[in-house]
Design brief:
With about 190 residues, the protein is of the alpha+beta class. It is built from two helices and ten strands; from the N terminus they run ααββββββββββ. Strands 1, 2, 3, 4, 5, 6, 7, 8, 9 and 10 form a ten-stranded antiparallel β-sheet that branches.
């Protein structure tokens, strides 16, 4: 049994790492395919403004990111309700919507995959620290939570993104999964912006 659990935890980490690399590769490929004429640039801008949809784009709440953190479980029987490690991410889709896939695991029981779509509110300046503006960008959303035990249920999430440097964002989130019972966890993590 322990071998299966350990294998599941390693597979969870591998999925999180692959997700992060996939998102960064997509962003790098987008940067490589820069238009090389004014006409191409104008056409690209018209297309972006018309559709507004681009995987990995920044939202009004800030840039996309991938990172790691700690989940502090408050309630429930899955790893979401236990104190565990987490892989976090934000992948912007439009100016106001993003998907925030993540994984929480305690490496001994199970892992829970979280896939919420969120509405990202604009960043609000709350002060200054060491001559740098500090802002917070709240978000709310919902999606699904999938446990490696085979249970699936709805997920509600809300939190704050706090950009702390050009390449780093602190993320805090409260997640409520309705898998078997109510699973509740609060996470804090750091993400690398792309």
């Amino acid at each position: 049994m322990k071998g299966n659990i350990r294998h599941s935890a390693y597979a969870t980490i591998a999925c999180g790492v692959l997700l992060g690399f996939s998102a960064m590769t997509t962003a790098a490929q987008a940067n490589e395919s820069q238009p090389n004429s004014a006409a191409q640039l104008a056409q690209l801008n018209d297309t972006d403004q018309a559709s507004g949809f681009q995987v990995g784009r920044s939202t009004q709440g800030g840039p996309s990111y991938v990172g790691a953190g700690v989940n502090i479980g408050a309630l429930g029987g899955t790893s979401l309700g236990d104190t565990s490690l987490s892989v976090i991410s934000k992948v912007g889709l439009t100016n106001t919507f993003s998907v925030r896939p993540g994984v929480v695991t305690d490496f001994t029981d199970d892992a829970t995959f979280l896939v919420p779509v969120t509405f990202d509110l604009p960043a609000t300046r709350i002060g200054e620290l060491a001559n740098q503006d500090i802002s917070v960008a709240p978000y709310l959303g919902g999606g699904i939570a999938v446990s490696t035990d085979g249970d699936v249920g709805p997920l509600l999430t809300g939190g704050l993104d706090i950009p702390v440097a050009e390449q780093w964002t602190i993320n805090t989130a409260a997640n409520a999964g309705f898998i078997d019972d109510v699973d509740l966890g609060v996470s804090v993590g750091v993400g690398y912006n792309f």
